[in-house]
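Hi C.,

You asked whether I'd gotten around to modeling the 234-residue construct. I have! Everything is below, sequence then structure, no commentary in between.
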Amino acid sequence: MKLLKLLANLGYGSRKEADKLIRSGAVTDAEGKVLGVKDFPGVENVRVLGVELDPLSPLVIVMNKPEGYTCSTADPGETVYDLLPPRFSKRNPGLNSVGRLDKETSGMLLMTDDGKFLHKVIHPKSNCLKVYHVQLDRPLQGNEGELFGSGEFLLENDPKPLLAAGFEALSEKEALVTLHEGRYHQVRRMFAATGNHVLQLKRISTGGLKLPPELDEGEWRIVSEDEKDELFGK
């Protein structure tokens, strides 16, 4: 791969901008030797302003999404992409969220430029269950586990019953909900159907992968190959 194309694909600019970056002397090898347009010592040996290059595609990252951010650039206001380095929005192929969290939901969000990986995670047969921590406005009424786990629970304006969902009460106004699917505002609508209101909603795991405890809200990191296997229970 040519150095120009590599830098452009990783979002460091257009080919013209990457050419200017190289000619400015900002691109070096691991030993600090300035690289020219025709030089290419291997991806692992290229540095931009002394910093290693971002990983090549396929890339998977995990983010601790804060409230107030949307998962689509088509939505108004701040997006999860604003929490990433600006060059990430210019990568080719680009990053997409693996399923969405609504604006007021926080927690674990996977993002990837690998379409096969994305579809594998969200496909029902992958069994990548999603667990949410829920804070409620009113006390639980006691039959939520039976309702949510029945496989016959209907949401307003949905003709098809929900798949059976897991439920665990943690206190009178706090619970864990495990989903096998991801319908629009599903957890909020489930509790609304019981006459309750969700005050705070946080995704804490997907499949066998938990939200990394070291990630503060708004932080992210790369998902390792071992963690990808963990996601699918390998």
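If it helps when you're writing up: The CA atoms of residues 134 and 201 lie 5 Å apart.

Thanks,
B.
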